[in-house]
């Protein structure tokens, strides 16, 4: 029974993501079990509603830790189907954990729903902002969260109809783009009793990616100098921006001497106010990634 439940959840995610690896010319598709077919049928029945959820989260386009409408929409849908929902977990207002069923195995499904700043986009195949300067779902997290919701609801339907033992748990994980949400939920012990955790991501192709993503450290470096008028008395100033630029130059020279799997990328988020003032403060934001932490 445990293995059956695992297959149901895996099947639901596969259907949602169109993960069909059967070449029809080579062999017949594998026949679904009764429980799997129930889950597939449930997805079909909910298709219009799931599309509407996707569109709503796309339109909300809320950045990390501010996904108030997006998280509430997912929570409402889960509660309507009988899930028990804990909101504001790990002291994050837009994080939640929704559970259905009982006992082992406990199967987690990760949902993301945060947008990226400055990437507002209409649902058209060319660049056109929905809101000028607004946030947008350039990474498709509107669909990511929606498909996770659909998988959880369909698994619940299979649990009920076929009396499967086990627990399906949907994790609402905010702020994926800044690497925060899942980390604080992990530190809060939200994943400790899981048997398996499933995740997916929109892409331009349909396949299964096995493996792990890179460990990530997000860090901001702020340099402090002395302000001065850049024309009248530049010699009196100490440029914090120069320090940022020197650091970035050093990092770029260091790239040759780090492991091939390492990634270092940055953006200057504070470079001073205007050119005729020597910047007294400057900040650079780094992401450092590698296969091992």
What report would you give on this structure?
By secondary structure, the chain is α/β, with parallel strands linked by helices. The chain has two domains: 2-198, 3-Layer(aba) Sandwich (Aminopeptidase); 215-290, Alpha-Beta Plaits (2-Layer Sandwich). It has helices at 2-17, 34-60, 68-80, 141-162, 181-187, 240-254, and strands at 84-87, 96-102, 106-111, 166-172, 196-198, 215-224, 263-270, 281-290. The strands form two sheets. A five-stranded mixed sheet has the order 1-2-4-3-5, with helices on one face. Strands 6-8-7 form a three-stranded antiparallel sheet, with helices on one face. Helix 2 (34-60) packs antiparallel against helix 3. 33% of the residues are buried. Residues 17-24 have low confidence and may be disordered.
């Amino acid at each position: 029974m445990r293995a059956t439940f695992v297959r149901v959840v895996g099947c639901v995610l596969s259907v949602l993501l169109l993960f069909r690896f059967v070449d029809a010319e080579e062999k017949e598709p594998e026949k679904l079990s009764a429980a799997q077919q129930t889950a597939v049928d449930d997805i079909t029945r909910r298709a219009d509603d799931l599309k509407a959820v996707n569109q709503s989260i796309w339109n909300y386009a809320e950045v990390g830790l501010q996904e108030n409408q997006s998280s509430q929409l997912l929570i409402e849908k889960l509660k309507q189907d009988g899930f028990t929902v804990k909101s504001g977990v790990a002291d994050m207002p837009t994080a939640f954990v929704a559970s259905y069923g009982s006992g082992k195995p406990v199967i987690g499904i990760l949902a993301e729903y945060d947008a990226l700043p400055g990437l507002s986009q209409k649902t058209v195949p060319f660049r056109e902002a929905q809101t000028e300067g607004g946030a947008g779902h350039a990474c498709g997290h509107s669909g990511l969260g929606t498909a996770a919701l659909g998988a959880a609801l369909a698994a619940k339907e299979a649990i009920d109809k076929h009396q499967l033992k086990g627990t399906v748990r949907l994790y609402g994980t905010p702020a994926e783009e800044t690497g925060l949400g899942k980390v604080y939920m992990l530190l809060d012990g939200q994943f400790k009793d899981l048997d398996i955790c499933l995740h997916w991501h929109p892409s331009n192709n349909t396949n299964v990616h096995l493996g792990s993503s890179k460990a990530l450290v997000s860090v901001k470096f702020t340099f402090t100098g002395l302000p001065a008028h850049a024309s009248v008395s530049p010699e009196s100033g100490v440029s914090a921006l120069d320090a940022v630029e020197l650091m970035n130059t050093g990092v770029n020279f260091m790239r040759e001497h780090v492991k091939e799997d390492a990634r270092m990328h940055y953006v200057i988020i504070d470079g001073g106010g205007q050119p005729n003032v020597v910047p007294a403060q400057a900040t650079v934001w780094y992401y450092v990634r590698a296969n091992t932490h």
